[in-house]
C-alpha cells in the first residue's frame, strides 16, 4: 500500500501537497518500540506531546480524558511489575497513562474512542519529534494502578503510552499489514473468509460478555478452523510482540522444553532436520543449540509473517545468518520431498492442527527410513488438562492460535500405528511450571506427553 502513488485534493498548493505527502509517509513509517535506551525526555517536550494529543476530537467535546505522565524510575519499575509482560515500561523515558472520567456518554464507548484518538495523536506527535513509542493496553491490575496513580474511583485507566528512544539494537521492523482489499469494502460488508475467524454460534455477541479471561464465544477447537484461518491468525498475532531476545519464553512451560529436547536422537553432522510450526521461534533457538554443527535445520511455518518474525528473532538472539532455512507450509502438507529428512520436530503443535493424524502421515512420508520424529503435546488427561477445561479454554483464544490438548494415550496410539516409539515420557506433574519426568503408566498423566519415534522402514 505504501508504494502506491498518493493523491491530495486539487485545492492544495504544490508546497502543501509535498508537505502532506511527506508527513503521511513519515506516519506510515512509525513502528512500535519495545526496547528503549533508558534516557530521559525533557518535561516540556512531554507536555507538548500531551498538548498535541488533545487536539484530537472528543465525544460532545467533553474532553473527559485525563493523562498522567510518569517519569520517576521507581514508579516506572513498579508499572512494569504491575503490567506483568510489558518490560519496556521500566526503560522508556515516560509512561502516559490514559484515563477517562466515568459516568458520561458511554454509548458505543464514545469516551474510550475519544481517549484512543488522543493517544494516537500523541503517538504521532512523539514519532514526528523523533522519539519511539508503544501503546499498551496490558497495564495490569487496576487496583494496584489506582493506588500508584492516586486515581479516584470516578476515573478509569485503560492504557499507557510509553515514549522514549530506541536502543540501537532494537529491531527496526514493522509488523505486517493486511492487504487493503481484506480490511475494507465499498458500500457493503465484504471480507475474505480466511480473515474472519470462527467463533461459537450465537444470536448476538454482546460486548460485556467478552473479556480476555472470559470469552464464551471463543472457538478453541482447531478442527472448526481452516488451515488458512489458522495461518492468518497466527501470522498476524505473532507480531503482538517485537522479535526481541527472550520474547515468548513461557513461564508456564518452565524447563519442559529442555526435557522435551533431551529426547533428541543422536544426529550426524549432515543431518536434515525440519521443525514444524514453531510460531515465535522460542523452540527453534533452543533446538539450534542442541544440533551438531553442519546439521541443516529447516523451519516450516504457515505464514510468511511468522517466517519474517522468526528470522529477525534469530538475528536478535545472535544466531549465525543462514543457519536456518524456511519453508511455507500450506493446507497441512509438509513442504519437503518424500523420504528426505532425518528428523522432524513437532513442538507442542499437533494440538493446534485441524487434523493431527493427517500431519503424522505427512511426517511418515517425509522421513527417510530410520529417520526420527520428536513430538510433544499438551495432555488433556492431566492436571493441566483440568485447568485447560475449567479455566484456560474459557478465555479468548491465545495468539498462537486455537488448540485443544490431546489425550496422551490417544496420541501414543496414533504414533504406534505409524512409527516405532523408542522412548516416551510425561513431563510435569503439576498443572503449570514444573518439568518432572514421568515414566511408566504415570507418563500418560503428565502436563505434556513427549515421544521420540523411529520411522519404520517398509
Ligand atoms: C489498543 C492497543 C493496545 C496495545 N497493547 C499492547 C501491549 O499491552 N503490549 C505490547 O507489547 N503491545 C501492545 N500494542 C502494540 C501492538 O502490538 C502493535 O501496535 C501492533 O503489533 C502493530 O505494530 P506497530 O505498532 O509496530 O505498527 C497495543 C496496541 C494498541 C493499539
Question: Can I get a quick summary?
Answer:
This protein has 458 residues and is an alpha/beta fold. Helix 11 links the parallel strand 8 and strand 9.
Account of the protein in words:
It contains 13 helices and 12 strands. It is of the alpha/beta class. Strands 7-6-5-8-9-12-10-11 form an 8-stranded mixed sheet, with helices on both faces. It has a 4-stranded antiparallel sheet with strand order 1-2-4-3, sandwiched between helices. The chain has helices spanning 14-28, 43-53, 73-83, 110-128, 142-149, 180-183, 227-237, 256-261, 282-290, 304-316, 356-366, 383-390, 408-418, and strands at residues 65-70, 94-101, 132-136, 155-164, 272-276, 296-301, 324-328, 341-347, 367-378, 419-427, 437-438, 448-455. α11 links the parallel β8 (341-347) and β9. The protein folds into 3 domains: 1-30; 34-164, NADH Oxidase, CATH 3.40.109; 171-458, Vaccinia Virus protein VP39 (Rossmann fold), CATH 3.40.50.150.
Secondary structure elements and their pairing?
Layout: H1 14-28, H2 43-53, E1 65-70, H3 73-83, E2 94-101, H4 110-128, E3 132-136, H5 142-149, E4 155-164, H6 180-183, H7 227-237, H8 256-261, E5 272-276, H9 282-290, E6 296-301, H10 304-316, E7 324-328, E8 341-347, H11 356-366, E9 367-378, H12 383-390, H13 408-418, E10 419-427, E11 437-438, E12 448-455
Parallel strand pairs: 5-6, 5-8, 6-7, 8-9
Antiparallel strand pairs: 1-2, 2-4, 3-4, 9-12, 10-11, 10-12
Which properties best describe this structure?
single chain, about 450 residues, alpha/beta, NADH Oxidase, Rossmann fold, 3 domains, 8-stranded mixed β-sheet, 4-stranded antiparallel β-sheet, globular, binds flavin mononucleotide
Amino acid at each position: 500500500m505504501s508504494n502506491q502513488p498518493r493523491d491530495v485534493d486539487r485545492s492544495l498548493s504544490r508546497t502543501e501537497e509535498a508537505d502532506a505527502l511527506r508527513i503521511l509517509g513519515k506516519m506510515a513509517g512509525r513502528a512500535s518500540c519495545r526496547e528503549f535506551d533508558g534516557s530521559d525526555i525533557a518535561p516540556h517536550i512531554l507536555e507538548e506531546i500531551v498538548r498535541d494529543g488533545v487536539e484530537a476530537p472528543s465525544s460532545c467535546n467533553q474532553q473527559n480524558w485525563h493523562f498522567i505522565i510518569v517519569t520517576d524510575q521507581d514508579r516506572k519499575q513498579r508499572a512494569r511489575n504491575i503490567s506483568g509482560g510489558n518490560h519496556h515500561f521500566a526503560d522508556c523515558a515516560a509512561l502516559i497513562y490514559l484515563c477517562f472520567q466515568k459516568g458520561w456518554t458511554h454509548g458505543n464507548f464514545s469516551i474510550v474512542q475519544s481517549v484512543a484518538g488522543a493517544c494516537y495523536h500523541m503517538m504521532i506527535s512523539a514519532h514526528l519529534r523523533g522519539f519511539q513509542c508503544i501503546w499498551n493496553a496490558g497495564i495490569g491490575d487496576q487496583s494496584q494502578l489506582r493506588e500508584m496513580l492516586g486515581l479516584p474511583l470516578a476515573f478509569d485507566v485503560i492504557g499507557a503510552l510509553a515514549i522514549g528512544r530506541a536502543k540501537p539494537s532494537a529491531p527496526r521492523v514493522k509488523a505486517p499489514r493486511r492487504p487493503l482489499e481484506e480490511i475494507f469494502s465499498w458500500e457493503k460488508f465484504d471480507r475474505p473468509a480466511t480473515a474472519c475467524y470462527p467463533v461459537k454460534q450465537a444470536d448476538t455477541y454482546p460486548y460485556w460478555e467478552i473479556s480476555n479471561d472470559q470469552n464464551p464465544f471463543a472457538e478453541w477447537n482447531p478442527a472448526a478452523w481452516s488451515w488458512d484461518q489458522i495461518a492468518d491468525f497466527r501470522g498476524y498475532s505473532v507480531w503482538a510482540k517485537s522479535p526481541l531476545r527472550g520474547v515468548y519464553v513461557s513461564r508456564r512451560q518452565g524447563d519442559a522444553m529442555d526435557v522435551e529436547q533431551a529426547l533428541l536422537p543422536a544426529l550426524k553432522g549432515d543431518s536434515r532436520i525440519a521443525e514444524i510450526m514453531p510460531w515465535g521461534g522460542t523452540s527453534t533457538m533452543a533446538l539450534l543449540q542442541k544440533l551438531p554443527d553442519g546439521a541443516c535445520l529447516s523451519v516450516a511455518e504457515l505464514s510468511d509473517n511468522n517466517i519474517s518474525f522468526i528470522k529477525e528473532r534469530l538475528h536478535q538472539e545472535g544466531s549465525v545468518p543462514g543457519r536456518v532455512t524456511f519453508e511455507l507450509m500450506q493446507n497441512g502438507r509438509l513442504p519437503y520431498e518424500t523420504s528426505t529428512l532425518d528428523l522432524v520436530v513437532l513442538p507442542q503443535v499437533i494440538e493446534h492442527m485441524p487434523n493431527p493424524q493427517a500431519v503424522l502421515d505427512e511426517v511418515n512420508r517425509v522421513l527417510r527410513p530410520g529417520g526420527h520424529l520428536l513430538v510433544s503435546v499438551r495432555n488433556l488427561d492431566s492436571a493441566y488438562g483440568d485447568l485447560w477445561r475449567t479455566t484456560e479454554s474459557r478465555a479468548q483464544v491465545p495468539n498462537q492460535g486455537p488448540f485443544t490438548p490431546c489425550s496422551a494415550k490417544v496420541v501414543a496410539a496414533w504414533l504406534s500405528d505409524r512409527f516405532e516409539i523408542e522412548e516416551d515420557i510425561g513431563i510435569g506433574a503439576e498443572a503449570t511450571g514444573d518439568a518432572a519426568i514421568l515414566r511408566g503408566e504415570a507418563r500418560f498423566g503428565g502436563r505434556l506427553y513427549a515421544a521420540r519415534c523411529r520411522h519404520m522402514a517398509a
